[in-house]
Design a protein that fits this description.
5 helices; alpha/beta; single chain; globular; Rossmann fold; 207 residues
Length: 207
């Protein structure tokens, strides 16, 4: 098995790269790092749907990854104790909001066999960062978490028949004035995501 791990930004990826000891192997078209045990390739796509889709396709088509993991940070769309900033969650389904052609109404479902001890939430992926109470309320009809990459990573994996999983850490409440909260929490939450990711994929390490 070759695992493909996709992060959106350097800031999100750095704690895991340091923790895992992954080595840089390429810089273009996306930064790429190799992990020997378990066999994995980590790429940093850049923010947004198009970049994430292209990087996900690269992992599958050019590097024969047969399982895709998306890790990183997100905002929360719902005011609940279990969805507070700093919490780490496993994504159950990922969608782009209202269903469209080729998109099931419930979104794309994950493989679901990693991070069983984590709470579960649905993810909505959008084009632009959400720091608006009205948009936050609208998107909450489709999920509890929001990001800018996850659902298209899931869609690419689904297209190629590849299982996928996602682990997300909450940095902000996706509300007015929360941009500064995101930046304040980014390093701490990314470190926590890295630790959960590292523990989760250790099951694939060769004895």
């Amino acid at each position: 098995m070759m695992i493909g791990i996709l992060y959106a930004t350097v800031q999100e990826a750095d704690p895991y790269l340091a923790l895992s000891g992954a080595k840089a192997v390429a810089a273009e078209p996306f930064a790429l790092f190799e992990l020997r045990t378990p066999p994995a390739l980590i790429t940093i796509s850049g923010m947004g749907k198009v970049s994430a889709a292209l990087a996900g396709q690269m992992l599958i088509r050019e590097y024969d990854c047969d399982r895709i993991l998306n890790a990183g940070v997100c905002g929360t769309l719902v005011d609940r104790v279990d969805l507070a900033t700093g919490n780490i969650l496993r994504v159950s389904t990922a969608s782009e909001g209202p269903p469209g052609p080729g998109i099931p109404p419930e979104g794309f479902g994950c493989a679901g066999d990693l991070w069983q001890g984590l709470p579960v939430a649905r993810l909505v992926t959008v084009e632009q960062p959400v720091f608006n109470p009205a948009e936050r309320q609208r998107l909450a009809a489709w999920g509890e978490l929001v990001d800018m990459e996850g659902a298209v990573v899931a869609r690419v994996a689904q297209l190629y028949g590849i299982p996928w999983d996602m682990i997300k850490g909450i940095t902000d409440m996706a509300d007015h004035g929360e941009r500064s909260t995101l930046h304040r929490n980014l390093a701490m939450v990314s470190q926590a995501v890295a630790e959960h990711l590292n523990n989760g994929i250790s099951r694939y390490a060769t004895p």
